[in-house]
Amino acid sequence: MLHRIQSRASNLKTSRRGFLKLAAGASAGLSLALHLPAQAQRSAALSSQGELDANAFVRISPDNTVTVVIKHLEMGQGTFTGLATLVAEELDADWAQIRSEHAPADSARYKNLHWGSQGTGGSSAIANAFTQMRIAGAGARAMLVGAAAQQWQVPVKHLEVSKGVIRHAASGRSATFGELAGAAAQQPVPAQDSLKLKDPAQFIYIGKAGVPRKDVGKTDGSAIFTQDIKRPEMQVAMVAHPPRFGARVASFDDSATRTIKGVINVVQIPTGIAVLARDTWSAKQGRDALKITWDNHQAFQGSSREILADYHQRVSQPGTRARNDGDAVTALARTDQRIEATFEFPYLAHATMEPMNCVAQVSEAGCEIWNGDQVQTMDQGAIAAILGIKPEQVTINTVFAGGSFGRRANPKSDYVLEAVEIARRAEGKPVKLVWSREDDTRAGYFRPAYVHKISAALGEDGLPTVWQQRIVGQSILAGTAFESFLVKNGIDATSVEGASNLAYQIPNLQVELHTVNQPIPVQWWRSVGHTHTGFSTEVMIDKLAHAAGKDPVEYRLALLQQHPRHRGVLQLAAEKAGWGKPLPQGRFRGVAVHESFNTFVAQVAEVARHNDGTFSVEKVTCAVDCGVAVNPDVIRAQMEGGIGYGLSPALLSEVTLEDGQVVQSNFHDYQVIRINHSPQIDVHIVPSAEAPTGVGEPGTPPIAPAIANALAAATGEWQTRLPLKGIRV
Amino acid sequence: MSVTLEINGVTHRVDASAETPLLWVIRDHLEMTGTKFGCGIAQCGACTVHLDGQPIRSCSTPLAAVAGRKITTIEGLASDAAADHNSVAGAVKDAWDALQVAQCGYCQSGQMMSAAALLSQNSRPDDAAIDAAMSGNICRCATYPRIRTAIKTAADQLSAGKTS
Lengths: 729, 164
Ligand code: FES
Ligand code: FES
Description:
The structure holds 2 protein chains of 2 kinds. Chain A is an alpha+beta fold. The radius of gyration of chain A is 27 Å and the shape is globular. Chain B folds into 2 domains: about 1-75, Ubiquitin-like (UB roll) (Roll), CATH 3.10.20; about 80-160, [2Fe-2S]-binding domain (DNA polymerase, domain 1). Chain B contains 6 helices and 5 strands; from the N terminus they run ββαβββααααα. Chain B has a 5-stranded mixed beta sheet, sandwiched between helices. In chain B, a hairpin with a 2-residue loop joins β1 (about 1-5) and β2 (about 10-15). One FE2/S2 (inorganic) cluster (FES) sits at the interface of chains B and A. One FE2/S2 (inorganic) cluster sits at the interface of chains B and A.
């Protein structure tokens, strides 16, 4: 999301330098500050229960449980596991004694070091917290060891720590972390520069198999999501939303609603009419019984077809330059062998498995919410602003999210504020806002629709001499808090990322952007700009390889001589997929490679042609280079999931609008992949000592172009419009 | 209306209108939240429970239709699994945990209920049988490859349990 734009330049370099120092065994390159809580800065973090509150991230209780406080939302991407792995590693804890819990909203302690505020996104969790969480573990370990040394009157250097037990070999003494917790709380908090982090050769958890996930309760029904929150006297609310973006309530009649058993109240809020009830079904029935007249004066009344037709017009005109190497305009004017393609991408809904929801309670003291909260600082600020209170008066209880893919990091805090608007009208009672699937699908905040055009020409050696790419679409960042620093010179970085930094070496390379305002709310969607730039650039390069009569893998490698990590994943994926080896009749391969969020991914897709001309994706071979692989199984899971998430828009999904209304409403018409669409996926991780980078998003961009390129291997035609449903081979 | 139903071996009396979906009876009236709401129209499978051993979409099953019948939810599957690891429930739970199937986890109650129903009827499902039984269960985290492997792993565990 907001992410790497900030991280990309300075922070990544900082963390990479910091990492290298650590890897060299130097005393912790602590350029990333560890934010210790105020109470732990005092000498002893003593609690009456004999618990060690070592720092903002680590608590150790006498029952030998180590609680790791996780500052990043667990929405499926494995933060509960990955961040805890880093703590456990430096603490030398037993993995079985570790439990993870979400941090409270407190930007001072729990900010994302890439953003400066608390929030999760941009595949940044491991990347920003890698050193910070290790220091937290090492700090707690030093306090435990210090306590043991004092109790046993032995030097610290004679103590060993392994799997949550501290031992003194000479005397045969040993104690568990839990036994030492109370005494450790009396120890001074160690100075950060006194801590020495492990050499990677000593790692017992980082990079190892058999480190199971810590987001437990997901196979017995006990894991708690927002939808599962219960509070005393809680009411359930459903909202009748306007059917068109920009429409308002003109008048409404709630007399039928108020006769429904279980309905408690009906209130008008800025985003519609809310029905409060004792339970969800009563709220839904109450909502269905409302009679509302909508005022459409300010409403969007157009269609996505018209929007895209307009984009196709604009794409032939020069836009605002995002990159300009050499002189693409002249080079194109000189050639009579132009190769062109125009690409089209629809709006997409996030369609998280758990529809948006939020529990809120507004009282004299302030506001408390329960939410799968992805951007705590932003949500706190937005809530405080509408209630006229201070951000510190907003308490956020972060719980598991049933998926987000960016949706819960809404730049306007849309559904969160809707819950608060209802709660402030509920006489202090807690309110659970529940969106139906239809509400969720039609609420907007879509991945924007885009049209791209790429014009290129080849030199005598078959390699491209010129590449001009134009992109037309809405700006995700316009009108958000990020606009002022992430939209530069008229370029929203999230509109062109993946295109403006194209890795292929081409002497005349130009990327231009047309930003078009539309009244359709848009938002980041797993891998953001890369969802479309990854497709257009990788399909185009494949088309050029074919025009040059070259093998698609060899052609890319020839253009990536300055990019060893792109080359590494491309070669590994090709090798593991058996690239170049003959395939059975009716099978075809396609390849794509793309960098996003500083992680490099290549995929080879294998498609099968069926007798009726339809096709299926049978197998995907994926190679990923994300630096140090903190938890290889989570990385594999994220590649599988990222590929699967990208398969839906590759094959099936699109949001369309007609007469101002979103046509799709639920999974019967907003189609997503099911198990029968899911290919075999083999993931290979490139061994690396580079600083770790994220894996939540980078698996998504390459899959659609890899499939399109496989279809081209079958048909000789490069598809330029997503989704690919209905394509015959 | 007042209805009696048996959930996970426990008899409950519920006062709710006849057309109230079983999903909301389970979640809101009985406060068992393992069974999830995803779509409300029998399209996603998040709300799957067993009715007399058969998988059903509880969001689209009215209370009146289940009066006096036996229902099993994910909580019941988990306690059956704890009681007997060689049961279908045990094999499914163990396989799901061993393969680390869940990502966000929101769909997994429904996935496991559908998988358990499949394995109760077909102890050796092939890919086509898995597709047929499981394609009603959406996973937006796309854990499908692991779901497929987990079902086969559970089938292996069940047949090993039978022969040993
Ligand atoms: S909630 Fe019942 S099938 Fe989706
Ligand atoms: S695990 Fe997230 S929807 Fe299936």
